[in-house]
Design brief:
By secondary structure, this protein is an alpha/beta fold. The chain has 26 helices and 46 strands. It is extended, with a radius of gyration of 48 Å. Residues 406-577 form the VWFA domain.
Length: 951
Amino acid sequence: MVINFLQPLFLLLIPAILVVVQWWRKQKQMAKRKKWTIAIMRSLLFSLLVLVLAGMQLNFPVQGKTIVFVVDRSASMKDDPRVTAFMKAAVQQKAAEDEYAVVVVGGTAAVDQPLTQRNQVQQLGVEINRHATDLSEGIRLAAAMIPSQARGKLVLLTDGIQTQGDAEKETKLVKERGIEVEAVSFQQEQGDEVVLTALQVPQQLYSGEEYAISVEVESTLATQATLMLYEGNREAGKQVVQVEKGKNRYAFTQKATEEGFHRFRVEIEAQRDTNQANNQATAYTQVAGTPTVMVVEGHQGAASNLVSALEAGQMKVEVKDISTLPKELDAYKQYASLILADVSATQLNQADMERMRTAVRDLGMGLIMTGGSDSFGMGGWFQTPIEEALPVQMDLKNKEELPSLGLILVIDKSGSMSDYGDGYDKMELAKEAAIRSTTMLQAQDQIGVIAFDGSPWEVVSPQPVDNLAEIHRQIGSIQADGGTDIFPALELAFQKMKTLQTKRKHIILLTDGQSGDSGQYETLIEQITGEQITLSTVALGEDADRELLERMAEWGKGRYYFASDAASIPQIFSNETVMASRTFIVDKLQVPKVTGAGNWTSLREPLPPLRAYIATTPKQTAEVSLLSIDEDPILARWQYGLGRTVAWTSDLEGKWAAEWVGWAGNSRLWNEIVAWTLPQIEDGVWKTQTQLEGGNGKVTVTLPGEAAMPQELEAVVLNQLMDRQVIRLRPTAPNVLEGVFPASDPGSYLIQITEKAGGQAVASQTTGLTVSYSPEYGLQDDGEQQLRNWLLAGGGALISDTQAVFGNDLPEKWEIQKVSEWLLMLAALLLPLDVAVRRLQLPEMWWARMGRRQKTGNTAADKETVWTRMEQKRMNTRKKTREQTGEELWQHEVASEVQSETPKPQSTHAQTSSRQPVPPTAQAKQVEEDQVKKPDETLNRLLAAKKRRGK
């Protein structure tokens, strides 16, 4: 143990001692023992306070070692079993006080096992991004786990191949903290490899232009291979080539025949190759030409009048069935605008909606939604990505005189609902659907929720929707378990619904299984409809009793839905909630009012009347060009991200707007509307290049020589999951700007580059980068040599023996124990004692007694010896007095003391005895015996007699 001080204030002990000495010299009248006591207490008190001010610490040497294993679990390591075996063997050799932890690293790092002193290593189980290796991230996390006072060391178990980060730099930083770094090399066998390293396509093309596609291949051997070129999913070329060892370059010649944004993919099949994952590459190009409008119909003929009007205006239109919608985001880039004609939300899945929303916001595609019985709120678009993009909201805000709705949701909570359908938790989606339905209701509506398995459970008793938070909490408490019995749950819903005093009453039943009890469904549903209650059913998945549910919906005068995709449940419930209220269709013959917003020239002419529309609520910044007599939007537009969107709340078929279909200005109006949604931003004149560097994508923009530097240039990067990342491009050279983004995961990265001036987009360009395979599968340099190089530069060491992990000596570390608080507490306890000793006036005899006790101890034998000596001294004194004053004086003095000090008799016997004459000599002898028996009492009486005599 070592004593340490944070401040040199311990030197104050010298003046503190001088103060005590000075005080000692001044106290001449104080009893010696009291003086010593006060001096000692003050010295202790001053010493404690000085040590507190000096920051006294106790330092103890740290005995144990703290080792953190950093395990490379990237794809190139192939889950090498030697790694776990090495750790187990090393841990078996640690001392009892040693501790260890395990950190796994790939593209990211995570703690697999926290610090422990156990001598058993668990199997690695934490999943990380295995498409890259960032050893620096693992070193940083592992070093953070080692306490500052610990004797720490990092042991890296890796093949030495890092695709991103700077392990050398991080090792230097760790060494500066006093943490040692060692590494164990686990090299993997490398077979014959043929790798497609690059695919280059011109960035911009014109229709009819011939161009070359360049392909780069790198190989570790000479072999024959076949190159195949695909445009989208169509084969566009094929070559049989001879691949030489090293780098190879090949070319395809193509002609741009189709306008729009195109993706090319090249694949190679070699006769001798080990890894097939690195045998493809992808690139993008843009072929300029006439923009194409994609039209999606909810049912056949829903947009036939619109298509005719657009084609009359020389627009290029492509009508698509919902089943043929693009499944890749880059495919939407081929279209300038998208029209959804009376399409229900239940006809699209969530991924389709996300792709459409992203294409509008980030790629500048236009979007138009037209009305009909399956559109807007009637189509269940409430709280969807499409609603976010449109200029109107689906729910009705600030509406009065809406009929009240009583809605009861009957939800299957059997054990099968806990299964995942298409990657979705069915029970969670059902609860989300129920919650979404509650948020669509108005203040005058009431909601109830019943969950069932083998028996029904009233989750939410029918009540107004004025406490949504509590209703949502109750819905969220539903857990899947048990069997399936529909009849009791439906019967309970009927009984609860009869008690509601609402104008409309509706039940929605959701199940994914077969009912355990057939029940008298038709009889029960007849009673339900007899109370003016409607019933709709939802069959979830192929295992549901679809035939029974369809008949139940027919008997209940409602609608039947078959949800093959669990993700569509929220949209179905939203649609049913709207359909039950029937408040969204406004059936009034009227001529819409022109507001002047939009400046479409066709709206300056006399307008025909409308018969019906879907009521919506305009968003705050939307421009409403046409209003109904109820102040509902008929035609509205707004800017959403880079794209523009329009909402037309009446239909296109002629059921609600027959006069508009026959109106002379209809074709011109719709050409103006669609033209407004087309991209209005100019194409950037710069040249863009994308490339993969390690685990990062790099975007390089080169401006023409005469072009001015843009005020702001940013790139929106969208990966295959449509995760969005915005990066700012910064100048790196004259007329050159660059930006970097993470790109370790294989897949396509669509990049939208936008120039802004004054916060507004003025030019844009779309490009892309495809990571066909993980950088872990590329051709790698000698990993062990790389490992040796950065360990040498960073101050680390390469080991191979398990004994070296815990056996090597580490720099000494000291554990610091601060004692200032304890010293301060002790000083606080001594202070009142010091005050008490100085202030209280204790008899001098006490101090003498305390001094003798300190010298002789506190045992009973010691006390008896002390009093015996005192009595002997007193007797000798009395003997001398008797000799000097005579026997009579002594007897008289003793008799007087006995008479004055002896208490009065307490009994008759005692009084009689006291009156008997006692010889003086005998009386004195009795007094001496009593004094021997009771030394304290005798001494006190003699002292009292002495004082009286002195007076």
